[in-house]
């Protein structure tokens, strides 16, 4: 069995926050943010917009494009690092979709989550275990940034994106992948739990606490991304018996325009083939690749049969690349 990609969708909160507005929150400027990152605005969720709600909207669009009923979905993978429930959010999406026959669970791999999710779903489809899999990337990191920290708060935005993947007896459209982790660099990017000691009864001490805000060593993560991502994509290009000239579109995790440009340059992929919407959304973590893919498909840029190289990278540290035919 092989896999095909038959639908996509995306959703973002209604509220748009421009760079200039952030200059009222922290010591920053539109000039700094746009020249260092390419970001001009981001979507920020309010108290009526939930992770599950946005994820469900994106999934419904993907199902509609594919012409598949919710009841026929076998697997829902939600890639997220900002679950509204530590026990997972995927089951809420299953209920909201009415996907009563699907098993649903979360995959946590930060900004690499969508690529990890696609690769995970492909294993279930290729073995014939399942026919229809929804892979959703969704994150609301505006809830988890320190709005006093200019190093991070200007970077992130909220959103969700989804693809429907289907098993096929025909041509396998996932041409290759490479997914990796390096925990030795874990301290570069964290949304960590901080515990406080509490003596429950004499002799029994437990730890309770809260999640802290996102902390990031931007320079280290930047260095990591521009080294690891081209290597990973290059490996997949070789595994798929392709050359970089065969890549029609490069859809990278939308963290920073400078990273996308540097990766494309290293791979000798021309700037016109780089799909970018970081200016409009900022870094939406696991959602960024499927949101960009959805826009490119619906605008007619990506056509059926086009070869797409994608790569997610971020906390873990983790990174992954995949090449697929749309
Ligand atoms: O999705 C997860 C993956 N994450 C990433 O891919 C992020 C990777 N890193 C980056 O994209 C970049 O490192 C950043 C955009 C985060 C930072 O850009 P940079 O060019 O590496 O800047 P920097 O951290 O070296 O900071 C340069 C200066 C510093 O001031 P001094 O020490 O030179 O006086 C910062 O304090 O810019 C200052 N700065 C700011 N100034 C205005 C940092 N943030 C801001 C800000 N506004 N928002």
Brief overview:
Helix 3 packs across helix 4 and helix 7 runs parallel beside helix 8. This protein is of the alpha+beta class and 326 residues long. The protein binds oxa(dethia)-CoA.
Biggest pleated-sheet summary: 5 strands, mixed
Neighbour order of strands in the largest sheet: 1-7-6-4-5
Small molecules (ligands, ions, cofactors) in the structure: oxa(dethia)-CoA
Secondary structure tally, helices: 10
Q: What is Rg?
A: 19 Å
Beta-strand content bin: 25-35%
Mean pLDDT: 98
Number of strands: 15
Shape type: globular
Percent helix range: 25-40%
What order do the SSEs take from the amino end to the carboxyl end, as H and E? EEHHEHEHEHEHEEEEEEHEHHHEE
Question: How widely separated are the two ends?
Answer: 17 Å
Low-confidence stretches: none
Structural class: alpha+beta
């Amino acid at each position: 069995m092989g896999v095909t990609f038959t639908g996509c969708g995306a959703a973002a909160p209604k509220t748009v926050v421009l760079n200039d507005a952030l200059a009222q929150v922290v010591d920053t400027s539109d000039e700094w943010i746009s020249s260092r990152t390419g970001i001009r605005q981001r979507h920020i969720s309010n108290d009526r917009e939930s992770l599950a709600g946005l994820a469900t909207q994106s999934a419904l669009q993907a199902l509609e494009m594919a012409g598949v009923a919710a009841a026929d979905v076998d697997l829902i993978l939600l890639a997220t690092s900002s679950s509204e429930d530590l026990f997972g959010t995927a089951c809420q999406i299953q209920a909201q979709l009415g996907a009563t026959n699907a098993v649903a669970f979360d995959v946590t791999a930060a900004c690499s989550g969508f690529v990890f999710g696609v690769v995970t779903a492909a294993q279930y489809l290729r073995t014939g275990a399942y026919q229809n899999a929804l892979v959703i990337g969704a994150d609301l990191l505006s809830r988890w940034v320190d709005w006093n920290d200019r190093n991070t708060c200007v970077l992130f935005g909220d959103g969700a994106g989804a693809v429907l993947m289907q098993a096929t007896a025909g041509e396998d459209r996932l041409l290759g992948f490479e997914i990796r982790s390096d925990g030795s660099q874990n301290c570069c990017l964290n949304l960590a739990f901080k515990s406080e000691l509490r003596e429950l009864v004499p002799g029994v001490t437990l730890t309770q606490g809260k999640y802290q805000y996102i902390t990031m060593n931007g320079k280290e993560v930047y260095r990591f991304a521009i080294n690891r991502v081209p290597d990973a994509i290059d490996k997949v290009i070789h595994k798929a018996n392709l050359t970089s000239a065969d890549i029609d579109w490069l859809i990278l995790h939308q963290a920073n325009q400078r990273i996308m440009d540097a990766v494309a340059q290293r791979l000798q992929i021309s700037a016109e083939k780089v799909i970018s919407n970081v200016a409009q959304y900022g870094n939406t973590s696991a959602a960024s690749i499927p949101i960009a893919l959805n826009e490119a498909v619906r605008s007619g840029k990506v056509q059926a049969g086009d070869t797409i190289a994608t790569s997610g990278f971020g906390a873990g540290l983790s990174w992954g690349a995949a090449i697929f035919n749309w």
